[in-house]
């Protein structure tokens, strides 16, 4: 996507084999990039959320394997790198998907070929992510057009949660891909952006992205969405996903479930943008079977921002002594609250039969 007229991706290979990434921790205040030179550095970048968002986590892990193969390309090194990368963040299934895919492709190759091959495979996975998101956005555009036609003569109000934008992918985004395509097609729209505590991905990333592209948007506090829906100010919700089950349950950033409940209560369509690598056909019941990452207490007790002198600062907002140890990063929205899954193959109902018809069995899906 464009930043000040210049085309960017979130991750790329540097000429010397290092991996370049946008460091999301500095946004929206500064656009900074980092060079990752080893698999260990990629692990830190994923774990500490320099890069984040399910598809981008998968892409970063693929390049992490390439860096590992550059260091040592034995079977043991491949296994160890996969295990270390897999442990960085447990919830988004794209991480496991990317590691499974690359290790399956690399394992039969002679160790001497693996280094070059791993870079090519990582680049291929990244290009595929871009194509998937573009196509997914095309299907989402049709939904947005239909919604706009239902509300002629006024702007369409879309609510999104967290950052399922191009920063969360290699390019385009998932939820935002449809929004960018609709905006570019001249549809008059406006986006309500949930701030998304505790890490404020909506405030710091989605609002920044939309602003760079010129998309009209308003940042709202997480608790405002239900009120806006009750007053007819939300026509459509589109969110991303970290994992979707074979039954259509959606695991996404904490707070998604509450928005889905409010949407259901107010007859607001609630769509989930789901690239196929985010579908986990090995899991049926999202509530019982998905491991939810519990993140650091500091995310609750502290907030980060920019000081008047331009320094990035983190300050405490909670009293010392109050427990902040329960910090689930994600929740599960049951399939019954999901109007549809926007995928690169088309819009799919969130139920086992429709998902099986579009994506088949776990074996076929691989
Ligand atoms: C298209 S990204 C899916 C997803 O990733 C985010 O999680 P995180 O910021 O913790 O990596 C969020 O749940 C987005 O919707």
Question: What would you say this structure looks like, in words?
Answer:
By secondary structure, the protein is α/β, with parallel strands linked by helices. It folds into two domains: 127 residues, Four Helix Bundle (Hemerythrin (Met), subunit A), CATH 1.20.120.420; 231 residues, Rossmann fold (3-Layer(aba) Sandwich). It contains 13 helices and 18 strands. A seven-stranded mixed β-sheet has the order 8-7-6-9-12-17-18, sandwiched between helices. The chain has a four-stranded mixed β-sheet with strand order 13-10-11-16, covered by helices on one side. Strands 3-4-5 form a three-stranded antiparallel β-sheet. Helix 2 runs antiparallel to helix 5. The protein is globular and about 60 Å long. It starts with a strand and ends with a helix. 48% of the residues are buried. The model has no long low-confidence stretch (mean pLDDT 96). Bound molecules: the ligand CSC[C@H]1O[C@H](OP(=O)(O)O)[C@H](O)[C@@H]1O. Its EC number is 5.3.1.23. Pathway: Amino-acid biosynthesis; L-methionine biosynthesis via salvage pathway; L-methionine from S-methyl-5-thio-alpha-D-ribose 1-phosphate: step 1/6. Keywords: Amino-acid biosynthesis, Isomerase, Methionine biosynthesis. This is Methylthioribose-1-phosphate isomerase. Pfam families: IF-2B.
Beta-sheet strand percentage?
A: 15-25%
What is the fourth-level CATH superfamily of the largest domain?
A: Translation initiation factor eif-2b, domain 2
Number of strands: 18
The CATH topology annotation of the largest domain reads as Rossmann fold
- Number of DSSP helical runs: 13
Going across the biggest sheet, name each strand in turn: 8-7-6-9-12-17-18
Mean residue pLDDT: 96
| CATH top level label of the largest domain | Alpha Beta
Low-confidence stretches: none
Protein name: Methylthioribose-1-phosphate isomerase
Organism: Roseateles toxinivorans
Enzyme class: isomerase
EC number: 5.3.1.23
